[in-house]
Amino acid sequence: MHGKIGIESNFGKGSNFWFTVAFPAAVQQPQNLELESRRFLLGKKIALVESNQIANFAFVKRIEHFKMMCESTKIPPIAMSTQRIMAKIFSEIQMFTDPEVIFIDHNELRGIDAAVIAEYIKQQVNLQNSALVLMISTKDKINFPPEKLELFNHILFKPFKSAKILGALFKIYNIENDDEN
To answer: What is the C-alpha to C-alpha distance for residues 126 and 145, in angstroms, rounded to an integer?
Structure first.
C-alpha cells in the first residue's frame, strides 16, 4: 500500500498524527442483496402455528411484507385446557393448503408442544413435504427433547425479527445471502 505518514506538533497544544492510504476501487455490489434474494420468496406459501395473538399478528405482517402468502392457526382462548387447545390446533392445521414451510411455536407456558404438532403434521398427506421450523426461546430449548429436534428443518430462536425469519427461509430454500453475516 502506498501512502504517507505525518505529524504536526505545536508546543503546548499537543500533536496530531496522520496518515493516508490508497485503497483499490471498491467492487460494486448489488444495491440490496436481501432484496435480490427476496425475489425468490415472492408468492411462496407458508403456514404458522402460533398461540400468542400479538406474536401471530406480527409474524403474519412480516411474512406479508416479504410478499409471501401466510396461513395461520386461529388463536385458542387462554381458558381452554391444553388438550382442547391442541385439538383445536390440529383441526386448524388440517385446513392448511399445501404450505412449503410451516413455522411452529413451542410454548411451554400454554402447553403447546411443537414436537407433538410436528409429528401430527408429518402424518398429514397434504403436509408431509412441508419444511418445519421450530420457533422457541433459548430457555424452553433446554427442556426440549434433543431427539425431537430431528423433526425440524430449522430452529428459530426468539425474538422473531425479520432478519431471523428471512435467514431461516433462505436456509430452507438454499438461497445464498451475504447480508446475513
So the answer is: 26
